[in-house]
Amino acid sequence: MKNIANIINFLKMEKNNYLLINQVSDEIGIFYLHVIQFFSTSTGININLNADVDNISTNNDLFELKKINVFITTSAKKIDQILSSNDKSIVFSDYKNFKKYQKNCQTINGYNFSNDLKTFVKETLKIENQSLIEICTKNPQLILSETTKYLLNKDNYLKDMAIDSEVNKILEIRKKIFELKRSDNIQKLFLAIKEEVNYKKFSFLTY
Fold this sequence. Notes:
alpha/beta, Rossmann fold, 5-stranded parallel β-sheet, 9 helices, about 10% strand
């Protein structure tokens, strides 16, 4: 509960500040990214997923307070650059940097993700389905697709045994997206995101 509350409070803070997340794995990182996007939507905050460290601002601009940059990096040099800027930012990194910077900014340790996932599903989304929680705990990157599917069709959730195939397919697409976010190939990233959207639309029709 504490980590989810910390994310909400971070998003609501008016001043520019920083949040560093030890994502542990790409899959857990995707879970936390979804939580951030979920709450940012309700608070009217724009999340910049393609943030460039070299383009962050060193000037304090009040009109930029509703924008939050999201970075994925294990480079301490880049993190130093981010923390010295005036942009409100979230950094997905590793445990080494989590330990190094936990006194310099707000932090979340992804090793606690299972409790955070249960809190988000049960208390925020008001979903009590144990099968969904177990699937998302094993595959945290599927939090968006599984919860959306459940909310669209609660009565028939998981009655189709094709779920294993779907899990593998979405996992493959999500991994591709996360890897592309670390590169400069915007076109391939766009196509991968489009592929995910189209696949989820198709999968919803089968339930």
